[in-house]
Amino acid sequence: MDILMQRTWAYFWLPETKYVIAAAVLLTLIALPLLAKERRRAVATFLAFVLCLVGQLAGAVFEALDYSRFAVMVHELFVIGSGMALVRLLAMLVFRGILPRLGIVVVRIAEDISVLLLYAAFILARLHFVGLDPSSLLTTSAVITAVLAFAMQDTLGNVLSGVALQLDNSLRTGDWIRIDDLTGRVAQIRWRQTTIRTRNGEVVIVPNSQLMRGRFTVYGRADIPNWPWRRWIWFNITHDSAPRQVIQEVEKAISAADIPNVAADPAPTCVLMEFGPGYARYALRYWMLDPQPDDPTDSAVRVHVLAALQRGGMQLAVPEQSLLVTKENEAYRKSIRRRETERRVADLRKLELFAGLQEEELRTISEHLIFAPFASGDVIYHQGDAAHWLYLLASGEAEVWMEIPEQPRQLFRTIHAGSTFGERGVMTGENRRDTVIAKTELVCYRLDQSTVDEIIHSRPEISRAFAEILGRREREINAFMRQFGDVPHAPVPQEHGMLEKIRSFFEL
C-alpha cells in the first residue's frame, strides 16, 4: 500500500504542480474583489480547476495500478482542463477586472476570441510536450475545417457578422435600435445571433448576417444617458384658426408643462407642414430622453396638445373625404345649446362667488364662459403675469405656488372643484401674485376682464362677495409669508378696504 501511494504521489506531484496551484489560488483571490458581478463565475472556474486536480490524481492512481495507457490519457485530459481553467481565470481578471478600471472597454467577442486562441495554443503546446506532432493534427483539421465551412457557411456568416458588429463598435448591448418594423433594446450579441427585447417584453432573435446585410437605426446608446430622440405628433386644424395662434399655443403649452421624459433643450417646436381640403396639417416635434416609455410619453404630450387646442377654441379637422355629414335642424342645435347651458349653470351654482345670483343671471354669465381645459402639469399662469382672466374650476385640482426671494418655490395651497382663482388681478388690476399649475386634469372656465366688468356694473353688490374672498385670501397669504420673515406684522386687511379698492378699479 505504501508503495502504491508513493507511486501515485510521484506521478501526481510534479515539480511544476505547486506553482500551478499557487497561480490558480492567487488569480482567484485577486479576481474576487475586482469582479463584483462575476464572483460566482470566478468561484465556479476555480472549483473546475480543483476537480481537474482530482482527475489528475485519479490518473496517477491508474498509473500506480499499471494501467499506463489509460492513466496517461486521463492525466493529460485533466491537465488540459486545469490549464483551460487557469486561462479562463486570467482572462476574466484582465478583461473584466483590470481593463475596465483603466477605462479600456473590450467587446465580449474579442474576449472570447482571445480565450479561444489561448486555449488552442495551450492544447497544441501540451500535445507537443507529450510527444504528439501538432503539424499532422493541423493538416487533418484543415481538411475537416474546409468541409465544415462549406456545410455551415450560413452559420459562419452569422458568426463573422457578429465579430464585425462588435469589433467596429456599431452595435452594443443596451442600444435601442429599429430594424424595419421591429423596435427594441439589444439584450445580447452572441456569436450567431443578436437578441432584441421589445417594449412589449417580446424577445426577438435576429441573425447577425441580417444586421450586416441590411440597414438598422440606432436611436439610443447604452453608454450615453438621456440620448435625445426626436418624436413627431401630427394633427389637423380647420382653416378658421390662424397658423401663428396654433403654433404659439401648442409650443407654449408643451414648453411650460413639466412633462416627464420630454427634454427642455432642444425646445419643442410646432410647424405647419401642409394644406389640405378643409384642414391645415401641423406637426409638433419634441425630444424624448428615454426610448423605453415611448407610448406613455407620447400620450402625455398629446393630452397637453389637445387641452391647449381646446382652450384656444381651435377645432380639429379631418380630410373632407372622411367627414360624416349629420343633418341638423334648428331644433337640434337649440337642444345642444340648451344642454350645454344647463351644464354650465350647474357648475356656476357650485361656486361660492355666484351663489346669490338668480337663475337668469347665471344663464347670462354662462353664455360668456370660455371652456378652458388643462392637462395635469399645465401652467395656468405665472407669478408676475398680467391678469386677463377670472378662472372657475368645475372639476379637478390645481396647486398655487409662490416665488419667495432667496427661497425655493413654495406650495401655498390647493384649489379644489367649486372654487374660483385669479380674482385679485381681475378685480384690482394687479399682476398675478402666484403661479397656478394643474395638479390633475381640469375642467375649467374663464371669464375675460370685459365680462367681469359687465357683471360688476350690472350687479354692484357682487363686488362685496369678491371683497370677502379677497380679504380672506390676503390674510392667508400674509400668514403664509410670515413663515419666511418676508412680511412684517401688519394689521389684518379688512373686507371694506378690499371693497373700496374694487369699486375704485371699476369706477363704481
Which helices and strands appear, and what pairs or packs with what?
Elements: H1 2-12, H2 17-34, H3 39-64, H4 68-101, H5 108-129, H6 134-151, H7 153-167, E1 176-179, E2 182-189, E3 193-197, E4 203-207, H8 208-213, E5 217-220, E6 229-237, H9 243-256, E7 269-276, E8 279-288, H10 294-311, H11 330-349, H12 359-368, E9 370-371, E10 379-381, E11 389-395, E12 398-402, E13 410-415, E14 419-421, H13 423-428, E15 435-438, E16 443-448, H14 449-458, H15 462-481, H16 495-506
Antiparallel strand pairs: 1-2, 1-5, 2-3, 3-4, 6-8, 7-8, 9-16, 10-15, 11-14, 11-16, 12-13, 12-15
Helix pairs in contact: 1-3, 2-3, 2-4, 3-4, 4-5, 9-10, 11-12, 15-16
Verbal overview:
With 508 residues, this protein is of the alpha+beta class. The chain folds into four domains: 2-151, no CATH class; 171-220, SH3 type barrels, CATH 2.30.30.60; 229-322, Alpha-Beta Plaits (2-Layer Sandwich); 352-506, Jelly Rolls (Sandwich), CATH 2.60.120.10. The chain is built from 16 helices and 16 strands. The protein has helices at residues 2-12, 17-34, 39-64, 68-101, 108-129, 134-151, 153-167, 208-213, 243-256, 294-311, 330-349, 359-368, 423-428, 449-458, 462-481, 495-506; strands spanning 176-179, 182-189, 193-197, 203-207, 217-220, 229-237, 269-276, 279-288, 370-371, 379-381, 389-395, 398-402, 410-415, 419-421, 435-438, 443-448. The strands form four sheets. It has a five-stranded antiparallel beta sheet. It starts with a helix and ends with a helix. The model is unreliable at 147-152 (pLDDT under 50).
